[in-house]
Design goal:
This protein is α+β, with helices and mostly antiparallel strands. The chain is built from two helices and four strands; from the N terminus they run E-E-H-E-E-H. 15% of the residues lie in helices and 22% in strands. A hairpin with a 2-residue loop joins strand 1 and strand 2.
């Protein structure tokens, strides 16, 4: 895909086709990492945390017999109502 760097206000930007974004699995509003490698600008999806962890798997990792305890965070600081 060939596109142009365009001036938008005080910044510059590129328009990317919907097909290109779909192939890269990037949607409008997604965060991306932008870097330069060997003189090329590389745009990649930022690491996504959602969906990376499985709650059942995390619970299985809790040692058997583990006893959780209450933690005292101190008294109210602002206008908390307990």
């Amino acid at each position: 895909m060939v596109t142009k760097v365009q001036k938008w206000g005080n910044s510059q930007g590129l328009r990317l086709s919907r097909q290109l974004l779909e192939e890269a699995q990037i949607a409008v509003g997604d965060e991306v990492n932008v870097a330069v490698h060997d003189g090329a600008i590389v745009v990649a999806p930022a690491k996504r945390l959602r969906g990376k962890h499985n709650l059942r798997e995390l619970v299985r990792q809790i040692p058997k017999g583990h006893k959780s305890e209450e933690i005292d965070w101190g008294g109210p600081v602002g206008q908390e109502v307990w």
